[in-house]
Specification:
The protein is of the alpha/beta class. The mean pLDDT is 93.
Length: 416
């Protein structure tokens, strides 16, 4: 897989421009505070999600790659974190694009708010991505479940265009996702629907010998119809965007993006995680465990729920008894890396943990693949893969119920 790290000098240049107020305009006072916070973070060599995205876009622009981002409220960002277009509060000067003049001779950067017509806009961006192959074309939903209104584009074109017509696309869908008590309409990006659209067979896990081969991940990408990731760190978000253009194959990329993690201190990344020699981590292991053989419970999760689990584990002092690993790339399923992780914790009860309801989220995609992998390993634990999470439901629309369910499944996850 490609090395997607970048020299620190390049990242610092992007960060300096991205955190500097343009001299010719007067920005809003709250935005001035945001820019100051970005500069302070750079001085501490830490990176937020907004900075990581700017690093990815800026790096590609420097490499001559056209970057285009569209969607509802993308210029500011739904959660006021991006601010790629800066407006003059005096109303005298034209808006300034934060990343359009970072490097001499860089490629064009286009960021534009779109109308509330997901079907039309996503269809346009998909077609644009087919004609501009040396580009990164991103469409962001205001909330992940807004893809409901573009379902036919996903089914008829993005998920199947390569198989039906030989059309290769690098389009990226950025879908804010997370069960955080916001109600049934602004919580889930419906990962189960995207995972159901993957063409891989749940019983198609290769032999252990094939898993050990270094080219296995690339062969998976060649065979898949789209990639699905749920990043839990800004560094991984940076790498997956950079990797999308560097890969020798063109496949659509579905990214479940964070909401509350955008400002969570624990979810920041050190800039070292983006330097040369680093790359996208399909699985993030648990390096905090001193003795893996002594671990009694292995929690496997994806996305922001990791931070809830890690906080509860620390509160109960179970760091040496419970390990938590994160599946950052859900599809193609990282059999090879999970094979190594499962071998590392031979005495642990395996439990899939998710924040989504049981009939939603990755559970019904992940469990049979874990089972097949364990069977290939001749590991008897394939009979007893546990689950810790919310029960089945159509939706949870009440914040009190949300908190009760969260407390219940975090308690269940820590039972040894």
């Amino acid at each position: 897989m490609p090395d997607t790290g970048v020299n620190e000098g390049v990242l610092k240049r992007i960060g300096e421009v991205f955190s500097t107020m343009p001299a010719e305009i007067r920005v809003h006072k709250r935005l001035a505070t945001t820019l100051l916070q970005r500069r302070e973070m750079l001085n501490m060599r830490m990176v937020s999600w907004a900075l990581a995205e700017a690093f990815a876009f800026g790096t590609l622009l420097r490499e001559g790659v056209h970057v285009r981002l569209s969607g509802q409220d993308v210029e500011r960002g739904t959660f006021s974190h991006r601010h790629h277009i800066l407006h003059d509060q005096n109303g005298v000067h034209a808006p300034v694009s934060a990343l359009s003049d970072v490097f001499p001779g860089q490629a064009e950067y286009v960021v534009c708010n779109s109308s509330l017509s997901e079907y039309a806009v996503l269809g346009f961006e998909y077609g644009y991505s087919l004609e501009n192959m040396r580009s990164l074309i991103c469409w962001e939903a205001q909330f992940g479940d807004f893809t409901n209104n573009a379902q036919c584009v996903l089914d008829q074109y993005i998920s199947s265009g390569e198989k039906k017509w030989g059309l290769n696309s690098r389009i990226v869908l950025l879908l804010p996702h997370g069960n955080e008590g916001m109600g049934p309409e602004h919580s889930s990006a419906r990962p189960e629907r995207f995972l159901q659209g993957c063409l891989d067979d749940e019983e198609g896990c290769p032999s252990v010998g094939k898993l050990a081969k270094p080219h296995f991940p690339m062969h998976q990408l060649l065979d898949c119809n789209w990639q699905i990731v749920n990043c839990s760190t800004p560094a991984n978000y940076f790498h997956v965007l950079h990797r999308q253009v560097m890969l020798p194959v063109r496949k659509p990329l579905i990214v479940f993006t964070p909401k509350s993690l955008l400002r969570l201190k624990e979810a920041e990344s050190p800039i070292d995680d983006m330097l040369p020699g680093t790359q996208f981590q399909r699985v993030i292991t648990d390096n905090s465990v001193a003795n893996p053989a002594a671990v009694k419970r292995l929690l496997i999760c994806s996305g922001r729920v990791y931070y809830d689990l890690a906080a509860r584990r620390a509160k109960q002092g179970l760091q040496n008894k419970i390990a938590i690993i994160r599946v950052e790339q859900l599809s193609p399923f990282p059999y090879d890396l999970l094979w190594m992780e499962l071998r590392k914790f031979p005495n642990a009860k395996i439990v899939w943990t998710q924040e989504e309801h049981k009939n939603m989220g990755p559970y019904f995609y992940v469990k049979p693949r874990l089972c097949t992998l364990l069977m290939r390993m001749d590991d008897p634990r394939h009979w007893d893969i546990g689950y810790a999470g919310r029960g089945a439901a159509a939706a949870c629309g009440h914040n009190i119920n949300h908190k009760q369910q969260l407390e219940r499944f975090l308690t269940d996850a820590m039972i040894i």
